[in-house]
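>> Question from a student workshop board

For tomorrow's exercise we were told to take the sequence and the ligand below, predict the bound structure, and bring the output to class. My setup keeps failing. Could a helper post the expected result so I can at least see what it should look like? The ligand is BES.
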Amino acid sequence: MTLDAVLARIDADLPQATDRLLELLRIPSISTDPAYKADCDRAANWLVADLQSLGIDAAKRPTPGHPMVVGHVDGPDDAPHLLFYGHYDVQPVDPLDLWDRDPFDPELQDTPKGRVIRGRGASDDKGQLMTFIEACRAWKAEHGTLPCRMTFFFEGEEESGSPSLVPFMQENAEELKSDYAMICDTGLFDSRVPAITTMLRGLLGEELTITGPDKDLHSGMYGGAAINPIRVLSRIVAALHDDTGRITVPGFYDGVPELDPALRAQWDGLGFDHGAFLGDVGLSQPAGEQDRSALEMIWSRPTCEVNGIQGGYTGDGFKTVLPSKASAKISFRLVGDQDPLAIRDSFRAMVRDMLPPDCTVEFADHGASKAGQFDISAPAYDKARQALSDEWPDAAAYIGCGGSIPIAGHFQSILGTPPVLIGFGKDDDQIHSPNEKYDLESFHKGIRSWARILDALS
Ligand code: BES
Ligand code: ZN
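>> Workshop helper replied:
Here is what the output should look like for this input. Compare the format with yours to find the bug.
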């Protein structure tokens, strides 16, 4: 059976595949920081060259931000046209002192839970993206061609709100249309249970900067008489939730549906271990809405979180300063039909209403995307699910995801292409955090999973 030959080649080639991933991980493609612009470009070049080595007609495509990488390969008319999406940009690495090694000097490590590939982007998303490319490489080596018509679409701005994505998709809609958009940027349910993600939360990113005095002041000379922007900011931030954890932005819950009982029953059947989930990160008590399960809170409830807060003197030691400015970065995860733009307006109005005299506020916009729910009735979902079940110890599950992948909704709305979200990350991968890793097993079985999915779909 030819699939067996492809799988055997994947097994034999794993050390070389891992070396290729390590090479890509050495490129510090941090999209949000302009200091790494040339590195983002280098990562795009690396991918173009790698796709070309597989005979794929690939090119770097400029945008006002970081380049896209797009490649095409032709295939038989009687097989579906598959698009594959991943992102080559990564999150910033700070706080750097919490890393055990240089985030861009990746290595294989043996840990009590198995071998891991350690480095920024190992899981989110370079390791995941390479699972698909490696499956194609093995397929091509065995068969001489790829199994179906394919489009490869890699982005370099996903971690910084994808400012160039929608215009690029609109301008190149005809070129990017396909039968299914396979997105590899999500996780397994757990190490035994692979998953297809059918729900994603949306995201609204807001940054607010409050200015009081026109310069930093001595807090002994002015404190008491002069307004302190950190106190103003703290009051506003504290007012965003009430004592029961509900978000107080007016109209915030408009469009939030109650969980469908059938879906609740399906999720309850997954046997998610809330205690272990929190225990893995040093916690024991569930926070948040008391009457809801952990999965329900992460997958289907909206949130408001402060992701960063700044103001005054934050260096070592102590300084009696009354600062001129204070700022916070706040993200809202959205579900159902919540409208990110209406929530942005309401949030900004609420902040302005709370501003005392003499203070001003400026807002910066860090992206707005609606939640996504994907129709899984097309036959490809069931075929992909079966292919995943064949590779992993237990059968694949349909799951939700607390994170946000705005492009999944764009495939649907701009291109009319149904997204299929399959990935092999794990909850303990420490994505966006120090010491990010990807299990070697995720990488290896991820490659094998794609080979099985390609076989099933073509
Ligand atoms: N790969 C993640 C999305 C994700 C997170 C999937 C957790 C599965 C579990 C993606 O790269 C990401 O981090 N997205 C951002 C959104 C973006 C607009 C900044 C996110 O969810 O914060
Ligand atoms: Zn990602």
